[in-house]
Every structure is written in C-alpha cells, then in structure tokens.
Amino acid sequence: MGQAGSSQTELSWQDHPARRRPRAVVFAVLYVAAASLALHLGFRTPWLTLLGRLGLVAAAADFWFPTAYALDANGASVRSLLGARQLAWSAVRCAARVEQQGQCGVMLSPVGEPGLAQRMRSLWLPVAVEGEPSLDTLVGWVERHALARRVPGVAHG
User: Fold this and answer.
1) pLDDT band per the 50, 70, 90 thresholds, residue 150
2) What residues contact 136, with CB distance under 8 A and at least 6 apart?
3) CATH number of 9-15+67-149
4) N or C: which end of the chain has fewer CB within 10 A?
C-alpha cells in the first residue's frame, strides 16, 4: 500500500496490489497471454483478440492499477482507473471489521441485510501494509462517523 495522508478531517491512502505481489503479476501476465492465444486461435482475428485482452485487463483493473481511498467528514470514497464510488456516512447501514485469509480491512455497506445486494454495493477499505491506516484507525473512523449516525434497529458488525 502507498503512503497515507492523515489529519483530523481526512484520511487517505493508496493500494497497488500488482506492486505488492510481483509473483502474482507473473501469473496474471501468463494467464492473459494464454487467454489471448486461445482467443486468437478461436476467432482468428486480431481485433477480437485485442478486445478480449483489453476485457481481461479491465476486469482485473483493481489489481493492475493503483486505487485511492479517502475518508472524510462526508463519507468514504474509492477511486480507481475505471471510476469512483462514494458512500456517505449517513447511508452506511452495516459496517464490518474483516480479518480473514490474509486480508484486513473494513467493509461498509448501504444495505443492512446480508446477501448479494450487500456484497455488490459495499465499499472495501483495506488496511495499509506499512504505515497508516491500520485496522484500528479504520475502525475508529467508522465508529466516529458512521456509527455515530446509527439508526435504531440497524446492525453493525
């Protein structure tokens, strides 16, 4: 993860998984190359092969390209090459601390009930590998901002 900027009013950091995991980059490049070869052998046209290759790279854009995360008084935001997502603290209905399978972070969701809608609409905020934000820092931000606006009957994990 990249550097984190921290102040009383904003917390921001970057994550670039391809930079952190060079062995995974090798496997990803080999996979895209093998899939491109299969596409070329199947379609026998360079345009469809190129389109397929671009689709594979775009599908894994969160891995290949840096993602910027920011928390401020208004909410949480995630910005990547393919777009940005924001979630206002007032819209958070579920917040969960996640520590499993080598991943630590906080999952924020505007959907209170577990299920597909919650997984699709959630924002994942990973911890930094080095420096801030730590898991405790992220949880503190969520407690101060999202849970302070808690609606009675809403579950927070």
Assistant:
1) low
2) none
3) 2.30.29
4) C
Please give the Cα distance from 8 to 44 (Å, whole number).
57
Please choose, from the candidates 122, 92, 93, 118, the residue with its C-alpha nearest in 3D space to the C-alpha of residue 107.
Answer: 122
CB distance 127 to 133 below 8 Å: yes
Average pLDDT over residues 48-77: 94
Tokens of 92: 């958070």
Averaged pLDDT, 111-130: 87
| pLDDT higher than 60, residue 38 | yes
**Per-domain boundaries in the chain:** 9-15+67-149, 20-61
